[in-house]
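Supplementary Text 2. Reproducibility record for the structural model of the 480-residue chain.

All settings were left at their defaults, and a single model was retained for analysis rather than an ensemble. We include the record here because the model underlies the residue-level annotations in Supplementary Table 4.
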Amino acid sequence: MSQSAIDSATQEKLDALIKQEEGDSNNYKGMFAIFLTLVAVGMSLFHLYAAYSIVPTQVLRTVHVSFVLFLVFLSFPLMARYKNRLMWWDIIFALASIAIAYYAISGGDDFGDRNTAPNPTDVLFGSALILLILEAVRRTNGMILLTVTVLFLLYALFGDSLPAPWTHKGYSVDRLVGFMYMTLEGIYGTAVDVSATLIILFTIFGAFLQFTGAGKFFIDFSFAAMGGKSSGVGRTIVLSSFLLGGPSGSGVATTVTVGSVAAPMLNKVGYEKNAAGGLLAAGGLGAIISLWIVGLAVPVTASYIICAVIAAPALINLGVPAFAAHMFIFYYAVLSEVSPPTALSPFAAAAICKGNPYKTTLQSWKYVAPAILVPFMFVLDKSGVSLLLMGSTTALAQANWMEIVWSTLTAIVGIVALAGGLQGWFIEKTNLLERTLMIVSGVALAYTSPTADMIGFAGFGLVLVLQFFKYFRAKPEESA
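Retained model, structure tokens:
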């Protein structure tokens, strides 16, 4: 069913969009493909063992990075013209990744102890690792993230030459390489720790879901749960995108998977092409936010890092908790998927629904407008942080649950009000006054203060009463 809904030309366009977001990898066949599969299986087994047993931190993180680099250099070509061709430099880069890891692990405790005064061999291997990682970033994420990373490395080396307030004392190459390569705070820092202990396990779990047919089950389950009415197709897209978001971690991939099945149905029940595409793109976007571990959303990493460097310190200085500040930034990095000039998810949805890409993008903005409001709910006021349910089990047990419930309630009502105001429909079709009241109420409820809540609930309640009057007045006319 999904295959007949999309012609070959459209499928090629969709594949190109997915590759643009996730990187264009090699597609080997024969013995070398089997070899790469065995390496990937070995990596999975190692991390499953590490999750069960005790593996030294330095060893776990070093081996993890080595596995990743080895697979990247053999799976992603240097340039597009070398795709599906195993080149000699790819083999050298892959073997160098193993050699660098072996050198670090075999050095034992002495290796880490001399990080402030590395010897020439340490600097050689460390510099090679940094260059290999930069090349791996370029192959998998493109030039934007690579450029940002290189700029910060240059800032560390030459920042002492800049005028105040951007200047610092400066770091030598030896000191920089020692910190990046020989400690657990540089390359092998928190990000690699999360990747090696959590993200890899959820990636394995997602692969099992994908290849055991769970994706089809999620779609079938969504249709069974939400079917029965013409509006059920729209709700099905939202639910199935939510369920598929964990395994895929890609807004475009989720949009394509769900859209190939749902697009004909959206057309059948009367959705206009661009509106149908916008709904598909919004559902695919929500899939990323719905991830069980949000760090899996690799395609938005570059946007997040750029914004985190600029905005996170400012938010934290204003009193926003660090985790809330970074979640705020991540949320908007995810929303970059529906922002021009790329807007990959809406473009994929437009290709499926045969709509105009730019009109589809505008429709997707209309659908995700409530999502644009949500991040402000947990940064404008300290009580809004309770929406994130962050903290240890003990901290959550001792939390003010009345505050959590109230913040959640105001957030839900605010989103419903904003969605109804933007769509022009609540219980019945809304007029200009009702739409204005709902939009104002939704924005007011985003700010967690008693006065704003009072304004928001008053406006929403007034519209609710007016809508019920319309509904009961129209009912006798319909029966007559």
